[in-house]
Structure formats: C-alpha cells, structure tokens
Amino acid sequence: AKRGGRGQFRLFETGMDASIRERRELEVDLRRALALRQFELHYQPFLELSGNKVTGFEALLRWDHPTRGRISPLSFIPLAEETGLIGKIGEWVLRTACTTAAGWPDPMTVAVNVSPVQFKDGTLVETVLSALAQSGLPAHRLEIEITESALLDETQSVLAALARLRDMGVRISMDDFGTGYSSLSYLQKFPFDKIKIDRSFIQGASENPESAAILKAIARLGSSLGMAITAEGVETAEQLERIRGEHCTHVQGYFTGRPMASASIGAFLDR
Ligand code: C2E
Ligand code: CA
Ligand code: CA
Ligand code: CA
C-alpha cells in the first residue's frame, strides 16, 4: 500500500525539485560565465547573391560550460532573459562583435542578435554607440537583428530606439520573418533594411507547395518595399537554386558556410 499514489507524488515532487535545482545551478553558472570567459562568438557568413560574394557574418553566441560542455543559445538565452543577465551578456556580444568586425576588410558587416529584453532598460542605443566608438567600426557595418517579439509591447519606445539606431547608420533586420503572428503589420510600422525569411520556409519549400508559395510571396513583398531579403538555413544546392529564382538578395546557411570561430575567418575569405 505504501507504493500507492502518494509515493508516486513524492517521486514526481523529487523530480521537480531536481529540475528546479538544476535550473538554479545553471543560473549561478550563467552569472559567472562572463567573468570566467566561457562565452565565445562564432560567425556565420552570408552571401550576396548578385555578386556571389560574402558580404558579412552573423555573430552567434556559444557557451562552453565547464562540466556540461557546449550549451545551445536556444536553452540559455531564455534563462538569461528571465534573470536579466541578458543585459550584460548582450553588451559583451555587441562590444566583441564590433571589435572583431573592425578587423575585417571594409565594408564587411557584422549582424548581432538583440533580445527584446535589451530594449527594456532604455540603454541599448547608448551601448551600441559606445561599442562602435570603442571598436572604430563604422555604423553602416553593423546590423542589428530583432525578432517581432521585440515589438510586442512598449512598441513605441522600441520603434523610437530602432529609429535612432537607423539614423546613426546602423542597419536593422527583422529576423525569423514569417514565424510570428503579425509579421506583416510590423513591415508597415518600421522601414527595416532587411528581412530574414525563417529557415522553415526554405527547407519546407522543396517538400510542399505551401511553403514554396509563402517563400515566393515574402520575397516579392520585401523586395517591392525596397528591403534586402535573406533566405536562412540554406543547406543544399537545390535549395540555393530555388532561392536564386526568387527575389532574395542574400543567403545564409550550412551550404554556404557554418558558424566558425573568429580565427578561421581570414582563411575562409581567402579560400
Ligand atoms: P537565429 O538568430 O535565427 O540564428 C540562426 C540559427 O540557425 C543559428 O543557430 C545557426 O547556427 C543556425 N543555422 C544556420 N544555418 C543553418 C542551416 O543551414 N541549417 C540549420 N539547421 N541551422 C542553421 P544557433 O547559433 O544555435 O542560435 C540559435 C538562436 O539563438 C539564434 O537563432 C538566436 O535567436 C539565438 N542567439 C544566438 N546568439 C545570440 C546572441 O548573441 N544574442 C541573442 N539575443 N540571441 C542569440
Ligand atoms: Ca539572427
Ligand atoms: Ca533567424
Ligand atoms: Ca531563429
């Protein structure tokens, strides 16, 4: 009788405690990760289709945890956002990406992902200004990537910050386009320089006509609004050929280059 429902409940509770404890441990580790230099940026090239040339790289955050090994940003960025740590981490990303990109041939650009939470304390524009000044990177060689979730609340203050950045010459990209609820309405609210079509449409386009039709429509729409359009997640020659037929201006994906350490970029560009 002791093995009844109560025992199971206790077991479940123990399991929950364990995952809460694990989360707390990860949070403590995340707090120390900056000071212990466990973060690194990798850079994934994007190609301009017209000239078939690499015109820039997207900075992607990597965390090498001392015991768990490399942890995906998809699992620690949300934790960093919930705990507010994203502020300091995001600032490190901006400064590091600008400093690295300043050493690349002109006019190679760097694209930096900015979390919606980074808009909240009102210091983002100052941080970008300072990162540019400190690194010497001209503003037009920096792209800021936001997802539409950044525009979900406090829309006006976010739009104002984006407008200030754009006035400085920084390019603004809408990331993961097509995956949110109101992507189209945001195109009307802000003149993005670039939209990045989420890889689900690129990868789906070979298998189903719906994805192919959406890809086509987004590319045409963006292009008629004068925006650059990146097709994300291109993994095969066949996908690249499909993209070439559309109004896409750029491609990014494993087919044209995987994210790489900063030290590998010189050789990659010379290849
Ligand atoms: P994202 O901004 O959409 O970045 C593209 C993700 O797709 C990267 O994953 C990249 O490695 C991956 N990818 C690129 N090409 C291909 C491909 O051909 N096939 C497939 N299957 N995947 C491809 P990663 O580096 O794991 O980053 C995941 C997400 O984490 C990013 O998605 C972004 O939302 C977030 N993230 C990464 N770095 C940062 C950062 O510094 N700050 C913030 N706030 N978020 C970041
Ligand atoms: Ca991105
Ligand atoms: Ca994306
Ligand atoms: Ca994404």
UniProtKB/TrEMBL annotation:
Transmembrane segments: none annotated. It comes from the Bacteria. This is EAL domain-containing protein. The chain holds residues 264 to 534 of 534 of the full protein. Residues 23-271 form the EAL domain.
